[in-house]
Amino acid sequence: MKFVAKKPREGINVSDVHPLVEAGTLVVGLTLIFVFIALLLIFLIEIALYFVSDETEAELFADWLPEDLVAVSPADDRLYETQLLLDRLSSHWIDTPYTFRLEIDDSEVANAMALPGGLVVVTEGLLDKVESENELAFVLGHELGHFRNRDHIRALGRGIVLSLFFAVVTGNDVAGLGIKATDVTLRGFSRKQESAADEFGLSLVHAEYGHVNEAWRLFERWDSEQDSSPGIVTYLSTHPQAGNRVEDLKLLADREGWQVQGDVRALQW
Amino acid sequence: MEDFLQTLEIFFNFGLPLLILMVAYFVGSTIEKRHFKNICEREDDLHGFPVVSFDTMPEDWNVSSCNMVTGSIVISLDYFKRVIAGLRGLIGGRIKTYEPLLERARREALLRMTESAREQGYDAVFNVRLETSRLANARRDGKGTAGVEMLAFGTAVKFASRFG
Ligand SMILES: [Zn+2]
To answer: What is B50-161's CATH topology?
Structure first.
């Protein structure tokens, strides 16, 4: 046998596609696919909202807790008192299908969330920021407002879409995804949803106390402090301000003829 | 001030990864081009040195000595390649950005093996095999580095008398 040395043609094992062309094709193509899927899912959520009543939702998620919740000890005084306050507020929403549950998340950033099945989660960071029961009552009332308008389901749907997207992009296991509270907060509510929740929340506060004194003091403090600590940033990123929140609330109280003076209850812990 | 912070945040969220991606692309493709050039030159230099994959040798071939020779290379992919491959992984198909990488690894490993054989005064390499092993997964948290080892090995032989 004779050995004949021969060089193969260059580039046999390498596709003749410029890497930038490959990158461009993939990015554009996948973006289109994702936009399509996202729109489809949002549309499906709206359809689901139309067919699944809030009673069914309350039943389905009656015992549900988000996976990433780090709950405080059940013996915590704040848990008991805040649940009590939530019950008092929701008692003014006569025909509510939900049995509201409250959990405190062990997180330093101030935030409050409305989650499926009538679950309200407030963070320890928020409880550290509020200085009176009335301030806390308005924050809780605002979350109840999200339930009434069913914003929480929409946010959940959008959150799932987004976390699905991130999971795919980062290469995580899509099948292993559970519903997390961070999904919901990932994408906050629209300004219109916020205003509506504010209005309902304030009406609950008024119904409970007979006045709305200090209801918006927390936001007033945040405005005046020009505080940019992570707490407020998180709260605002999930509950964006529609213009000037405090001004709007004052106008609302004025329009409805609600008392702005009255006894303020101290926090019960 | 707030605007500045916001701009900064946008930059860190979107600008920085994009910048890293661009830098990775330019640096990565420059290195790749130079490596291919280097490989071609060395292949030309070794042209005519028999490197074959037979596992048995004809009986009448008179071999005076033999030894195993190996050549290995550990190669990692750049961020750009990894991102594009990740996108490709969503829909499947040829991971075109990996092909040149593995091609470089194969040829470099073979070259190192052949060069080693020639240096030691052997005449040819028989029974050449290629092995790949994955070193680690690329993880997004920065721990672990993606890389493959390509190992080429074979039996270098010295003929008692040149045949032909
Ligand atoms: Zn809100």
So the answer is: Translation Initiation Factor IF3 (3.30.110)
| Domain interval for residue A228 | 52-256
Is beta strand A101-105 parallel, antiparallel or unpaired with respect to A119-123?
parallel
pLDDT in tens, A56-87: 888 888 888 888 888 888 888 999 999 999 99
Question: Which of B87, B91, B107, B163 to mutate: most A Cβ within 10 Å?
Answer: B87
Q: Taking CA atoms, what residue in A is nearest to B29?
A: A19
Q: Does A42 fall in a domain?
A: no
ipTM: 0.73
Q: Does B142 touch chain A (CB under 8 A)?
A: no
Check residue A176 and give its pLDDT: 47
Strand-strand pairing, A112-115 and A119-123: antiparallel
* Angle, vertex CA A243, rays to CA A241 and CA A249, nearest 5: 80
CA distance B64 to chain A (A): 19
> Which of B29, B97, B110 best probes binding to A when mutated, by most A CB atoms within 10 angstroms?
B97
R_g of chain B computed on alpha carbons = 22
Residue A19: inside a domain:
no
